[in-house]
């Protein structure tokens, strides 16, 4: 009965599957004519195959017409066929209990494939009978088919006669790209693959044994589809869509990127190097045309020198077709650029900055006849001052094919320069174009040394007998072989003997701006060209240091500290036992020899510099059973000497490793644990630490071992049976990253993943590749290789692999929003909208995108003003005057009237404050004073107990089977609380973990400065190396979670002057407000005689929070001047005299008006208190608590700089005060040392008594003088007028007499020979002239008749 029930259920499942296939087939076949015509037109336009696709469409239409004419005959044959099938099915159900075909017990793939094609004679013969029945059903339609179709069915009959074996082979041959034999593909895949099959059939290249449309379904007229089919097809598509997306993701698709300069955008197969660091003026002309866009045309818009070109490819498919398909299905790459913080925090602000952009599609410039040719996506490649290391994450927007996220490194290479002929040249040496095989085949692997997360360029030496190195700025995604331009000296002396000279570069270390190498006993360094980092320019050549020393080893310091990077040089010869400690600050290199007193080889003495922590045993301890041994000097030892070779220290978990032919580890540097899993016959050559809980070891025999920190199990990854299995699978998959002959060059971690740099030899093709070491997969293979047990299942013994993982599923829940703890600032910038019908952009729209991204980051860099804006957002000032016109700009774009052909959406450019947590712990956690981080771990367990009599019908978990532990690297700094909760209904256990700061390991510091490194390790007991989580990408380690923790003042916090609240309360308290006559909206004025009430804000630039500062602070005036141009900084003595209430020189500038118990002062050797007394380390000033009752009264006493200020105009004197507000030493509520320096503009400053009297006397004197002058003018004016008139008459008389005399003299000379001189008065002359004028008139009157 049970077997019959199982068979009946299986029959129902097969029936439902067949119905689903029939629905799909009907949809595919009935929509074939329209799809054929549309497909023919589309492909003809894209690929230029017009003739072939028109022929396909014609054949498709002919076939459909024949099908319609034969529908009546087919319907009758279908009816008979169904009756015969039902009869045979009835007979088959009777004998199924007695005879069961092997194919029914476990349906074979062949049977499922044939089951999709129709039902045959019945179910009695299983799936094979169905296939034969379909063949006979196809024979009945011979009259309505063409000769080619008859040939196809003939081939089907031949396959049916030959048996399932040949049929399976043909299916395998024809099923290119299908998921597998017998697996039912998704409807979308069938439609896509059906198009290719139909095209092959129509062109006569082959035929399929699958009927063109179902034989057991009612006929539907051509061009019509029943409504029920449409609904069912839509529902089926929606249900299976997620499965299709996962299937696409599993198709081995990956992102690709390249850098292009502005002038090379749109060119295919072009890539540039990232070395230019200054902005370029290539977008200004485009922005000038955007007259009706919401931008300020008065601003200067610049751009970055590079664009990021993006596309993707899948295995076995052309990239150009995939990119077009992705664009037409809505795919848009989302690019997240992360800028790493600089080393020198004194020059640059420490911040965790990201910008998220969406790539814009652009056609290539190559000529093409189709509408959509080759294309790529582009985004601006931003560059930020102070950051030379950038990581780029490329992901999908969720539409189109789902491509896994991929991370790249794009770092600035400061060791490249542009030649006059526009070619690139390395400044450290000459590039070698060919890779000789003897460079790598005969060499051993060597460590890759660099400053973690800070080195933009990595270098690797060790090439035999060649002064060459490998250089990369993309973490070996690509690289260059450089022959260095060094002198290659061989210096030997009696204290530095050299038995052999070699040109090999032995040690290489890369820092943020400097490269170090060692050749023989010589050490060189080279400083790169990084103007965005430092003002010091490089010398352009290698500089030799420690010229008088014999250096036998260079050692790196992986982490920077105190704004500098460090290296160590170990000398030999006369100075052996000393260490030269090198410091690199802004490209400047200095070395200091330590210890200062004597060499450690002369005997270690406990001094201030040296102390004995631990004495290493001479021999290796003897261990037989346990995995580790705590060395306590009481254990037994072997005869094998213990030879240490090096040390490795992780500052996050405080774990120190001493390695050689053993591996010792210690958490306190005093008690050491011997890891017994590592064989004493091997010797460690170098150690690679991820600093996230993983450790890899490379031996002198090129073996690779793996250790998970927090456990003592070491796993041999290579060579091993697990590696052999993985290698065989990769060769089977035809991976290009694995060959039979390969040489490992180096091993390194990148984002917590282990990578190899391997030299592959395959015939005449030699390559140097970077490949992932699948640690988790290899560990799984190691577990599968262990012994198995036989467990009874029913009547059989089944081999079962032991699973030592104590849980089945591990999930993280209740994770808080990450930005508050990771301190990641993220901006969003989307490309401007275009009016192109297919959504493509052009060079102008990309230029606009470039300029907008540049201006967005410029606003971020300038958002450090001491005066707080009314809205706490860097982009608020960008759109504050345009926001009210947003609907108008949208109206223009909706009607395609926007100038420049682009639409700028103001909401597409801003800062993101509400990022949601993902299902994993953050990359790092910042903790301020007494802050905490809480999350939950949900574990689904394996073990259950039987139902108890008291709790009938219930089951509960054995709580003792699952335990969670938390390991703290510095328990005196942080503490953790774990709360366990059993979830019986979900068979799970939930652990709530709360990590809290203990307020004991940090005093106060500037934001992001001098942070304390520590870590938290959350581990499930018994899960290390045994638990794995399967994902759609790759397996991951489960049960061990290591999170770095940074204690101190988190980056992104600042103190700002709240000018809005200050002015409001100022008006309220003083009943009025008088601004300057020339008002400045950025800096309002305050009247001298009014009380000043300052308020301050604590702004979080990461989360967008802005709240009033409620702690205590010190208010000091540290500079000032009568004008902004004449402001000077005061000395320490002047600051004390001008601000301290204990000053006795009458020099105070200000004082506290409303003294409350919340302020006090003190000076050394003398206690002075008013209210509550507080003690400071140095000179004390007013300690002001943020309270409304505390105001500042301006004094400007006699000896203060603002006293007796000379007015610059007729208005009252003004003064600019440079004010420092700091909470250092007076506020215990935070680790942050807030220091705010801002200017205060004070007007109406009174004059001194002397200057006032002087000005009064001068004013009175001037006034009296003006009055006296006025009176004098009034009394003497008539006399002056009369005198002036007389004087003028005399002058005129003199001039007239002189003129007349000249005329008379000249006439006398002409008329008579004798000259008689006489004088005639001027008055007489005038009378004579009048008389002479009257005589002619009288003569004329006499002559007239009347």
Structure description:
- This is Cation channel sperm-associated protein subunit gamma.
- It comes from Orycteropus afer afer.
- The chain has 1346 residues and is α+β, with helices and mostly antiparallel strands.
- 27% of the residues lie in helices and 26% in strands.
- The chain contains 23 helices and 64 strands.
- The strands form 18 sheets. The protein has a 6-stranded mixed beta sheet with strand order 8-7-3-4-41-44. Strands 55, 58, 59, 61, 63 and 64 form a 6-stranded mixed beta sheet that branches. It has a 5-stranded mixed beta sheet with strand order 12-16-17-18-19, with no helix packed on it.
- Helix 2 (32-47) runs antiparallel to helix 3 (50-69) and helix 14 packs across helix 15.
- The N and C termini lie far apart (174 Å).
Largest sheet features: 6 strands, mixed
Would you identify the regions where 5 or more consecutive residues have pLDDT less than 50? 1-51, 88-250, 944-959, 1155-1178, 1309-1326, 1336-1346
C-alpha end-to-end distance:
174 Å
SS field, number of helical segments: 23
Classify the secondary structure makeup into a structural class.
alpha+beta
Helix content: 25-40%
Radius of gyration over all CA atoms, rounded: 46 Å
Estimate the mean pLDDT confidence. 77
Shape: globular
Strand tally is: 64
Beta content:
25-35%
Major beta sheet, strand line-up: 8-7-3-4-41-44
């Amino acid at each position: 009965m049970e077997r019959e029930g199982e068979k009946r259920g299986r029959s129902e499942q097969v029936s439902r599957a067949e119905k689903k296939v029939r629905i799909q087939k009907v949809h595919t076949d009935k929509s074939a004519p329209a799809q054929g015509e549309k497909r023919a037109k589309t492909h003809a336009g894209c690929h230029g195959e017009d003739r072939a696709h028109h022929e396909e469409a014609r054949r498709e239409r002919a076939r459909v017409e024949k099908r319609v004419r034969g529908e009546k005959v087919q319907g009758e044959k279908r009816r008979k066929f169904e009756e015969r099938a039902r009869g045979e099915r009835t007979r088959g159900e009777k004998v199924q209990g007695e005879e069961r075909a092997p194919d029914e017990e476990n349906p074979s793939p062949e049977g499922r494939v044939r089951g999709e094609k129709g039902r045959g004679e019945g179910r009695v013969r299983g799936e094979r009978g169905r296939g034969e029945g379909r063949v006979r059903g196809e024979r009945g339609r011979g009259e309505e088919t063409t000769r080619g179709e008859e040939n196809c069915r003939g081939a089907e009959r031949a396959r049916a006669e030959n048996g399932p074996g040949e049929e399976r082979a043909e299916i395998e041959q024809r099923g290119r790209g299908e998921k597998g034999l017998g697996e039912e593909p998704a409807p979308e895949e069938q439609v896509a693959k059906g198009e290719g099959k139909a095209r092959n059939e129509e062109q006569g290249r082959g035929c399929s044994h699958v009927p063109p449309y179902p034989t057991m379904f009612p006929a539907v007229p051509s061009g019509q589809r029943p409504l029920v089919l449409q609904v069912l097809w839509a529902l089926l598509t929606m249900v299976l869509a997620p499965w299709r997306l996962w299937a696409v993701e599993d198709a081995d698709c990956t992102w690709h990127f390249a850098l292009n300069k502005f002038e090379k955008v749109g060119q295919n197969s072009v890539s540039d190097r990232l070395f230019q660091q200054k902005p370029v003026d290539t977008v200004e002309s485009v922005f000038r045309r955007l007259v009706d866009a919401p931008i300020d045309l008065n601003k200067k818009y610049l751009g970055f020198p590079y664009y990021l070109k993006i596309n993707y490819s899948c295995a076995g498919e052309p990239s150009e077709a995939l990119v077009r398909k992705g664009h037409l299905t809505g795919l848009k790459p989302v690019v997240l650029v992360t800028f790493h913080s600089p080393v020198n925090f004194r020059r640059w602000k420490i911040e965790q900055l990201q910008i998220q952009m969406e790539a814009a599609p652009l056609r290539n410039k190559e000529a093409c006849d189709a509408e959509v040719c080759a294309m790529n996506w582009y985004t601006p490649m931003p560059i930020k001052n102070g950051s030379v290391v950038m990581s780029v994450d490329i992901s999908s927007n969720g539409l189109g094919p789902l491509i896994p996220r991929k991370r790249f490194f794009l770092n600035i290479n400061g060791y490249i320069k542009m030649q006059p002929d526009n070619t690139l040249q390395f400044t450290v040496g000459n590039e070698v174009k060919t890779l000789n095989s003897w460079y790598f085949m005969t060499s051993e692997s060597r460590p890759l040394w660099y400053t973690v997360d800070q080195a933009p360029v990595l270098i690797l030496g060790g090439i035999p007998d060649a002064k060459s190195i490998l250089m990369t700025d993309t973490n070996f995604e690509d690289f260059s072989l450089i022959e260095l331009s060094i002198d290659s000296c061989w210096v030997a002396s009696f204290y530095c003997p050299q038995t052999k000279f070699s040109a090999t570069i032995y040690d290489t270390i890369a820092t943020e701006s400097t490269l170090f190498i060692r050749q023989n006993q010589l050490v060189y360094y080279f400083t790169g060209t990084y103007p965005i980092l430092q003002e010091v320019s490089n010398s352009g050549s290698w500089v030799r240091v420690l010229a008088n020393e014999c250096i036998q080893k260079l050692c790196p310091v992986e982490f920077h500290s105190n704004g500098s990077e460090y290296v160590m040089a170990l000398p030999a010869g006369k100075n052996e036992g000393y260490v030269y400690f090198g410091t690199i600050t802004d490209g400047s290199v200095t070395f200091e020899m330590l210890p200062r007193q004597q060499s450690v080889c002369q005997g270690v003495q406990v001094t201030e510099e040296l102390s004995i922590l631990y004495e290493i045993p001479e021999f290796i301890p003897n261990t037989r059973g346990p995995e580790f041994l705590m060395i306590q000097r009481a254990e037994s030892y072997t005869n094998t000497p213990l030879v240490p070779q090096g040390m490795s220290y992780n500052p996050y978990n405080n774990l120190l490793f001493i390695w050689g032919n053993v591996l010792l580890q210690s958490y306190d540097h005093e008690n050491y644990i011997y890891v017994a899993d590592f064989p004493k016959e091997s010797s460690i050559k170098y150690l690679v630490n991820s600093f996230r809980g993983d450790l890899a070891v490379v031996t002198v025999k090129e073996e690779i071992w793996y250790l998970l920190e927090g456990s003592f199990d070491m796993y041999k990854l290579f060579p091993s049976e697990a590696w052999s299995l993985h290698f065989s699978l990769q060769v089977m998959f035809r991976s290009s990253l694995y060959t039979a002959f390969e040489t490992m060059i180096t091993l390194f971690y990148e984002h917590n993943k282990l990578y190899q740099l391997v030299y592959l030899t395959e015939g005449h093709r030699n390559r140097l590749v970077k490949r992932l070491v699948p640690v988790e997969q290899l560990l799984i293979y190691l577990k599968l290789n262990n012994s198995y047990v036989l467990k009874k299942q029913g009547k059989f013994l089944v081999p079962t692999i032991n699973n030592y993982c104590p849980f089945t599923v591990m999930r993280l829940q209740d994770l808080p929003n990450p930005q508050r703890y990771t301190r990641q600032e993220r901006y969003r910038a989307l490309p401007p909208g275009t009016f192109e019908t297919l959504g493509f952009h052009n060079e102008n729209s990309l230029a606009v995108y470039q300029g907008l991204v540049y201006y967005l980051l410029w606003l971020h860099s300038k958002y450090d003003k001491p005066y707080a804006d009314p809205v706490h957002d860097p982009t608020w000032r960008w759109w504050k005057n345009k926001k009210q016109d947003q609907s108008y700009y949208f109206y223009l774009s909706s009607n395609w009237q926007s100038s420049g052909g682009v639409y700028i959406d103001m909401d597409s450019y801003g800062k993101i404050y509400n990022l949601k947590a993902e299902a994993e712990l953050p990359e790092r956690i910042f903790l301020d004073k007494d802050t905490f981080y809480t999350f939950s771990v949900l574990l689904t367990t394996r073990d259950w107990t039987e139902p108890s009599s008291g709790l009938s019908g219930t089951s509960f978990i054995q709580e003792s089977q699952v335990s969670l532990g938390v390991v703290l690297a510095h328990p005196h700094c942080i503490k953790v609380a774990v709360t366990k909760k059993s979830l019986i209904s979900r068979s799970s256990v939930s652990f709530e973990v709360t990590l809290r700061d203990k307020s004991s390991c940090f005093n106060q510091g500037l934001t992001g400065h001098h942070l304390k490194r520590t870590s938290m390790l959350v581990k499930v007991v018994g899960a290390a190396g045994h638990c794995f989580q399967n994902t759609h990408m790759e397996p991951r380690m489960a049960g061990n979670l290591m999170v770095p923790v940074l204690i101190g003042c988190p980056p992104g916090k600042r103190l700002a002057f709240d000018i809005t609240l200050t002015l409001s309360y100022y008006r309220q308290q003083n009943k009025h407000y008088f601004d300057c006559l020339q008002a400045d909206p950025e800096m309002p004025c305050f009247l001298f005689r009014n009380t000043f009430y300052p308020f301050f804000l604590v702004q979080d630039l990461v989360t967008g929070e802005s709240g009033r500062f409620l702690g205590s602070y010190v208010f000091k005036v540290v500079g000032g001047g009568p004008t902004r141009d004449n402001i000077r900084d005061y000395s320490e003595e002047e600051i004390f005299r001008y601000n301290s209430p204990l000053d006795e020189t009458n020099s105070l500038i200000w004082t506290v008006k409303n003294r409350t118990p919340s302020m006090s002062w003190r000076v050394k050797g003398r206690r002075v208190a008013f209210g509550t007394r507080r003690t400071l380390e140095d000179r004390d000033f007013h300690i002001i608590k943020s309270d409304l009752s505390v105001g500042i009264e301006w004094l400007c006493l006699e000896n203060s700089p603002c006293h007796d200020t000379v007015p610059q105009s007729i208005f009252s004197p003004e003064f600019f005060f440079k004010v420092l507000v700091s909470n250092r030493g007076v506020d215990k509520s935070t680790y942050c040392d807030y220091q705010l320096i801002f200017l205060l503009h004070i007007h109406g400053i009174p004059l001194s008594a002397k200057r006032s009297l002087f000005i009064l006397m001068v004013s009175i004197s001037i006034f009296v003088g003006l009055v006296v002058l006025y009176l004098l003018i009034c009394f003497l004016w008539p006399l002056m007028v009369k005198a002036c008139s007389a004087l003028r008459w005399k002058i005129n008389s003199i001039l007239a007499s002189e003129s007349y005399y000249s005329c008379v003299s000249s006439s006398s000379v002409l008329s008579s020979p004798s000259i008689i001189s006489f004088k005639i008065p001027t008055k007489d002359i005038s009378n004579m002239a009048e008389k002479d004028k009257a005589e002619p008139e009288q003569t004329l009157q006499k002559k007239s008749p009347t």
